[in-house]
Amino acid sequence: MSQNDKILTQAEVAAILRVPESTLQDLARRGHRSIPKAWKVGRAWRWLASDVDAFIASRGQQVAA
After folding, report:
1. Deepest of 25, 34, 36, 45, by most Cβ within 10 A of its Cβ?
2. Could you tell me which residues are beta bridge partners of residue 40?
3. How many angstroms separate the Cα of 53 from the Cα of each of 8, 12, 43, 62?
4. Worst-scoring range by mean pLDDT, 20-24, 48-52, 54-58?
5. Reduced to 3 states, what is the DSSP secondary structure of residue 53?
6. What is the pTM of this model?
7. How does DSSP assign 41-59, residue by residue?
8. Among 4, 11, 61, which residue's Cα sits nearest to residue 49?
9. 51: closest CA among 16, 11, 21?
10. Which Pfam families would you find in this protein's record (predicted)?
């Protein structure tokens, strides 16, 4: 994590990935690999923007291959 890496909320990541927030929360709670790695901060889930970007890039490569 770089010092400038933005921390994203569940709503932000759900909008970026185009999935319902409830689905994202359920997958995060299970530690599912079909979403970027998430951290629990208090009662909320958080994601690093760089992890979300890397996840999207890796999914694009899998589809293109």
Report:
1. 36
2. 45
3. 11, 13, 24, 14
4. 54-58
5. helix
6. 0.82
7. ETTEEEEEHHHHHHHHHHH
8. 4
9. 16
10. HTH_17
Q: What 8-state DSSP symbol labels residue 1?
A: -
Residue with tokens 């890796």: 58
Copy the structure tokens of residue 52. 């979300």
pLDDT band at 59 (very low <50, low <70, confident <90, very high): confident
Helix (H/G/I), strand (E/B), else coil: 5? coil
Cβ(1)–Cβ(48) below 8 Å: yes
Length of the chain in terms of residues written = 65
Of 33, 34, 43, 32, give the one whose Cα is nearest residue 10: 43
d(CA 14, CA 51): 14
What is the residue whose two structure tokens read 């409830």? 22
Sign of the Cα pseudo-torsion (10, 43, 58, 54, in order): positive
